[in-house]
Design brief:
By secondary structure, the chain is mainly α. The chain has one domain: Up-down Bundle (Four Helix Bundle (Hemerythrin (Met), subunit A)). The protein is built from four helices and no strands. Helix 1 runs antiparallel to helix 2, helix 2 packs antiparallel against helix 3 and helix 3 runs antiparallel to helix 4. The termini are far apart.
Length: 137
C-alpha cells in the first residue's frame, strides 16, 4: 500500500509519522520477496515500538488539545497496537524468525493502516480541521 497525500490528516508531524509507517510496511513486503533476515525483523519491531510510544503520545496530545470526543476509542486502539506488537516482539525474541511472525506483522500492519490510519485517524483529521478553524475565528 503506497502513501498518498489524500491520507493526510492536516497535522504535518502526524502525517510524516503515518507516511513513515507506510514506508516501513512496504519495506517489509519488499524484504519478504527478497529474503528476510532476523536483523530486518528486529529492526522493524524496534521501529514499531518507537512509533507506538512517540506517535500515540503525540496524536493523543492533539486529540486532548482539541477536545476530541472519540479520544477513548483512539486510546483503546493505540493500546491494542502496542500490546499486539509487544506480543509479536516477545514471540520473535523467544522463537526467532518464522513465517507466523512475518505473517502476524504483515497482517497487523495492513489492518492498522486500513482500519486505523485510513479510517479513525481520518475522522480525527476532519474534526481537528474544524476545531482548529473555529479557534482561529
Amino acid at each position: 500500500m503506497q502513501w498518498k497525500d489524500d491520507y493526510k490528516i492536516g497535522i504535518s508531524v502526524i502525517d510524516a509519522q503515518h507516511k513513515h509507517l507506510f514506508i516501513a510496511t512496504n519495506e517489509l513486503s519488499e524484504a519478504v520477496s527478497k529474503g528476510l533476515t532476523p536483523a530486518i525483523i528486529d529492526n522493524l519491531l524496534t521501529q514499531l515500538g518507537f512509533y507506538a510510544v512517540r506517535h500515540f503520545q503525540m496524536e493523543e496530545h492533539y486529540m486532548t488539545e482539541s477536545s476530541y470526543p472519540d479520544l477513548p476509542e483512539q486510546r483503546q486502539e493505540h493500546q491494542y497496537f502496542t500490546k499486539r506488537f509487544t506480543e509479536i516482539s516477545e514471540d520473535f525474541k523467544q522463537n526467532g524468525l518464522s513465517p507466523s511472525i512475518v505473517h502476524a506483522i504483515q497482517n497487523e500492519l495492513g489492518l492498522w493502516l486500513k482500519n486505523h490510519v485510513l479510517a479513525l485517524d481520518q475522522a480525527f483529521g476532519a474534526y481537528y480541521a474544524t476545531a482548529h478553524t473555529k479557534k482561529i475565528e
